[in-house]
Amino acid sequence: MAAFLAVALAVVASPLLAFDMGQSTRCVTIPNQLKVCKDVGYSEMRLPNFLGHSNLEGEVVPRSEDWRPLLQTGCHPQAQSFLCSIIAPVCLDTFIQPCHSLCVAVRDSCAPVLACQGHPWPEALNCDRFSAEEDMCLTPLAKFSHLIKDLPKPACQNCPSVQVAPAMKTVLSAFCHHDFAVTAKLHRLRHPTGEPDFQVEGHVEFIRQGPLLPYDTKHLLQEWLLINLRCAIALVRPGRSQLYVLTGSVQPDGDIILVHLFPWHKKDAGIALATRKWKHQRC
């Protein structure tokens, strides 16, 4: 996500208002290297794009990679469609831009993710620059708006408490006072460039399920790591994995907040005892 600052500055340097709708354009096949727009639903794009980029290999492809960390956070289900309509606009008889309403929907969900990393929403993606007409632009889909409101989602937050070798009573108290408790192995990849990348290895085991969905919890935790990178970096060393017991709460707006993280080592008797006693625990 740190690389986003570079693309944000590049985007601001070539604002959408400078794009001339009357200029000559050409259609090209979306290359495999343009991974952020893979499976976007069409195979040809216009050049120059709406950022004014006309060189596919020298501008479009390398700068598009800087958007990938944002898309990986899952900040909005139509974020890919929105971004690709700008960096790889579909090749039709007329120019199709995102509607103002789609921009607002994506911005309202994704700008907090950028803010969590210390980056503002780019001025070049100011939603006032997009048309309010709903018939010649990309609109937000109602089904996605419904999902965003109803499903639990990770949120930017202050880093949760991490307690090493906790006592059994401390762990049981955390289980009682929070909505959910799970065990998950967090893995941090080692990249030559130094860019962090986190994954949740294997299965997520429930101790207390609460309102979490079994099929979605692993994905939610991975998105939490990508959104809260400054917290995640302190949890696992590069190239290593660490098993954690995580407890947290789901806020009224659906945001998932992690509260306590207990690294679980082989010698941690307190955690092992707490997980065994939990079935019979009265809070």
From TrEMBL:
Q: Which residues form the signal peptide?
A: 1-18
Q: Which domain of life is it from?
A: Eukaryota
Q: What is this protein called?
A: FZ domain-containing protein
* Alphabetical keyword list: Developmental protein, Disulfide bond, Signal
Q: Which cysteines are joined by disulfide bonds?
A: 103-127
Provide the transmembrane region boundaries: none
Q: Specify the FZ domain's residue ranges.
A: 22-140
Q: Which Pfam families match?
A: Fz
Q: What PANTHER family does this protein's entry cite? A: FRIZZLED, SECRETED FRIZZLED-RELATED PROTEIN 2
Question: Gene3D superfamilies, from UniProt?
Answer: Frizzled cysteine-rich domain
Query: Quick check: keyword Transmembrane helix in the entry?
Result: no
